[in-house]
Automatic annotation (TrEMBL):
Protein known as: DUF4440 domain-containing protein
Organism (species): Calidithermus roseus
Domain DUF4440: 14-114
Amino acid sequence: MSPKDAVLRAALERSAALVKGDREALERLLHPNFTYINAGGARMNLEEYLQTYVSLGDMRWEQQELDQVQIEFYGDTAVLTARLHDRATHQGRVFEAYFQTTQVYVHTPQGWRCVAAQTTQAPQE
């Protein structure tokens, strides 16, 4: 498998784990030093991310699709940019929106792990 395919696979597995609410899979796919900045500007470490998006149950993804994916490599680091299509329920309210994401992956002995990500609202098309 090419490095580009391996990073894309890791990104798709991360999205699938989020939709399934699979905390264990996310812990394998996200780096222990993971940092996330959501579309509202909140910054979270790994535990805060898992609590907010998996454990608390306030947020439940029905779908997260990536398109317009681009991946660039810098040694053992990969930067993935993509457009996200999210459909989820937040505190009982259904929402569907498009976002832009930047995800940074590092190659570790366990494979490609996401160490940082940021999501912003996508421009309306």
